Predict the structure.
Amino acid sequence: MATSPKLEPGLVVAGHGRHVWVETPDGRRLICHPRGKKGQAVVGDRVLWQATQDEGTIEKVEPRRNLFYRQDEIRTKSFAANLDQVLILIAAEPEYSESQLARALIAAEAEHIRPIIALNKSDLVQPFTQAWERLAVFRDMGYTVLPLALKPRTETGHTDTGTDDLHTLAPLLEGKTTLVLGPSGAGKSTLINRLVPGAQVLTNEISTALNSGKHTTTSTSLYWVDRASHTAMIDSPGFQEFGLNHIEPMHLASLMPDIKAFTSNCKFYNCTHLHEPGCGVISTLKDTAGAPAISARRYKIYIDLFAELSQKRY
C-alpha cells in the first residue's frame, strides 16, 4: 500500500499570479503552485505543500486570521493574509486622496486589522502643515498618525543628515506583520529599503523566479525586518484603485468611527443616515454649536460610498 506523500509546512512570502514563493521553517524558499483550481494562496498564508521535483504544490491553505483585500465590479485583489496591522503611507506632496485613505481604513476595519497612518515629507514645511491639519479628523477618531521624513540610504549605507522619525515608527512594527500601502511618490520603496537593506536584491530575485526572468512591480512580497522577533513588512502595489464592493452599504457606517459614534442616536434601526427623520448622524451634522463632530468632507465620502455600494452588481 502506497504511503501518502509527506506534507511540509511553509509561509507564503511572495506571489505573482498563481505562482507563489514559499519559505520553509528552516529558511529555504521554493516556487509552489496551487493544485488544480483550489483557492489561491496569498502572501502571509500558512500552507502545507508537497514537493514536486525542484518545486512544490500547495495542498492546503491553513485557516486565516484575516484577509485584507479590495473588490470592484471586475475582480477581487487580495493583498495579504494574517496581518497584525496595515501601515498606510501618504505624503505631503503629492497631495493624498482622502477618499482613497478612507477606503483603505474601511477595508482594515472590516477585517479587524489595526491601521496606522504615516505622513511622509515633514521636511516640506508648508505642504506638510496643511496635510497634517487635514489628518486631524483621523487623529480625533483615535487612529495612530505619525510624521515621517524618509531619506534614502547613501552609497556608504548611511542616511542623509536630519531626523526621519523612523525611531517613532520602528517600535510599532516590532514583532508584527505589517502590510505597507501607499500611492506612488509617497516613499514606500524608501521605507522598505531603509528597514530591509537587502530588499531590492530580494525583489529582483523574486521577480526573476516568479516571472520567468522579467522584472515585475505587480508582485506582493514579505520581507523580514527581524526574523527572530517575527517582525515582517509586506509590500504590495495597487493602492490607486480601491474598490469596496465586498462591503454591504448598510454596514458602511459601522466601519467609519466618526459616523458610527452617532448611529446609536438614530430613531430607526435600519437608518441609512441619508435622509431619515430622527437620524443621529444628520442631527449631529446640523448642530451648529461648537466644532462639528463629523466633518462635511467625511460625510460626503460616506454618501458617495453608500451610493456606490448600493448599485446593483451584475
Summary: The first helix runs from residue 98 to 110. Residues 151 and 159 are 6 Å apart (CA to CA).
